[in-house]
Design a protein that fits this description.
Blueprint lengths: L11 H16 L4 E7 L3 H10 L2 E13 L2 E6 L10 E8 H7 L8
Antiparallel strand pairs: 1-4, 2-3, 2-4
Length: about 110
């Protein structure tokens, strides 16, 4: 989860995300980065797409409430009632290199 307050620093979260991905790919040897986001979170999805992520799978959700707590569970499409999905996004190292050629200094 990437969260930030409104700021005068343009593209701060983009640069933080790119630095994190560079470290994952170059420093840790990760081949593919993966994340999950609610499909109605357009602002986050826009950021992730700018970083190079693409949607890989849309998982239907069921919303339940227990003891005042809301819970979302991945279910069969016929049981979904949340009104939005859980979107799985992926970014392989090759696509990251194409999107950010100067970012990777090694590997």
């Amino acid at each position: 989860v990437i969260r930030g307050r409104a700021s005068d620093m343009r593209n701060l979260m983009f640069h933080c995300g790119r630095a994190l991905l560079e470290w994952m790919f170059s420093g840790l040897g990760v081949e593919t980065a993966e994340l999950h986001v609610f499909s109605h979170n357009e602002k986050a999805i826009g950021l992730y797409k700018r970083l190079g992520f693409a949607a890989a799978e849309s998982l239907p959700l069921r919303r339940t409430e227990e003891e005042g707590m809301v819970k979302y569970s991945v279910v069969d499409r016929s049981e979904a009632n949340a009104g939005f999905d859980y979107l799985r996004m992926e970014l392989p190292i090759g696509r990251f290199r194409q999107a950010h050629p100067a970012a990777l200094l090694t590997a």
